[in-house]
Design goal:
The chain is of the alpha/beta class. It contains 12 helices and 6 strands. The structure holds zinc ion (ZN).
Length: about 290
């Protein structure tokens, strides 16, 4: 018996809702669904999926998969759409009020609202096949409106999809009576050392020809733009700066230990945990 089955809506020949710049619902919900699943698993719970790639499933197949996996809860991931592009908002669905499905729908909605910062359209009931035919208490999420240009562009950001995934994981775990434990591997240096030394980094970026930065100890978009991709095998003063920033011994050689520290930092910050310093990781390192 599983704790959850997560169902990414649409897929394959059915792209779901299509946004103003042609991004589609099926891709976004698959990504959010898999991310949410990995966060839930990280906390020690079990998760199954109706699909883990871009394939088409009938609604009854989704319910059948869930019923054969016998989870405690079922969650279906969707994004709304409407003819008026100005409409946006979050809503979640359950089959009927008063049951465990409603509690799940409420918990996830409440975790998502502060993260999404869009109108609250509330918890609603609907006779959707995936809610009706699933034996487990079930919730269906409509994560904003694809038809809203601002929402489509927010959903295009991996960091945003990550935040949604974490919020959904929290709501799910709370419904099981658990507590989502943040994983405090890394304490931001700013908290203990308010005058963290960015001067050293800015100087080094200039010396190595990555930028022509003002040495002002205030990292901003220009500093971020100058930061190169850094990965295992790198060596030198930029690596040294990264090591100091991560609080590990600073020998200027990017080896396995540095990679592990980067992965820990990425996990703590909800980033893709590949041990490579790309723009998203740099942004968090610079406190932006
Ligand atoms: Zn949908």
């Amino acid at each position: 018996m599983l704790d959850f089955v997560f169902d990414a809506g649409h897929g394959g020949k059915d792209p779901g809702a299509i946004g103003p710049t042609r991004k589609n619902e099926a891709d976004f919900v698959l990504d959010i669904c898999l991310k949410a699943g990995s966060y839930v698993k990280e906390q020690g719970y079990t998760v199954g999926y109706t699909r883990t790639n871009d394939k088409f499933l009938e609604l009854y197949e989704r319910a059948n998969i869930s019923n054969s996996l016998k989870p405690k809860y079922f969650v279906s991931f969707h994004i709304n759409s409407f003819t008026d592009p100005s409409v946006n908002g979050l809503e979640t669905y359950c089959y009927s009020k008063g049951g465990a499905g409603e509690i799940l729908a409420v918990n996830i909605l409440e975790e998502l609202l502060p993260v999404m910062d869009i109108p609250n359209r509330g918890v609603k009931t609907a006779n959707f096949a995936v809610l009706r035919r699933t034996q487990a208490p079930a919730a269906l999420l409509e994560l904003g409106f694809m038809s809203n240009p601002e929402q489509e562009s927010k959903l295009s950001l991996e960091t945003y999809r990550n935040e949604l995934a974490i919020a959904i994981a929290k709501g799910c775990i709370e419904t099981l009576g658990g507590n989502y434990k943040e994983q405090p591997v890394f304490t931001p240096v700013q908290e203990t050392k308010p005058n963290y030394d960015y001067v050293e980094l800015q100087k080094e970026l200039n010396i190595q020809g990555y930028g022509k930065l003002a040495i002002d100890n205030i990292p901003g978009p220009k500093t971020l733009a100058a930061c190169p991709t850094v990965r295992i095998g790198a060596r030198g003063n930029i690596t040294k700066w990264i090591q100091k920033r991560l609080g590990i011994s600073a020998d200027g050689i990017f080896g396995e230990k540095t990679k592990k520290a980067v992965i820990d930092f990425q996990k703590t910050n909800g980033l893709v945990s590949d041990g490579i310093l790309g723009k998203n990781t740099w942004r968090k390192l610079l406190g932006l």
